[in-house]
Amino acid sequence: MKLTHAPFGRVILYLLSLALPSFVALADEAKSKDAASLALGDGEALVVEIRKKKDAPAVEVKRAEPAAPTPGKVPVIAEPRRWPVQILSAIYGTGGKEADVTKAVREHVEIGRRAFGANPRDLGADPNPGWNKSLRITYMKDGVRREQRRNENETVLPESFYGPQDAHELREWLVATRWAGAKNELQFNADHTATGPGMPDTLRWEALSASKLRLIWSEDRREEFAFDYRWNRFSEVGNARNVFNAVR
Question: Which of 9, 86, 89, 140 is 20–30 Å from 53 (CA)?
Answer without folding.
Answer: 9
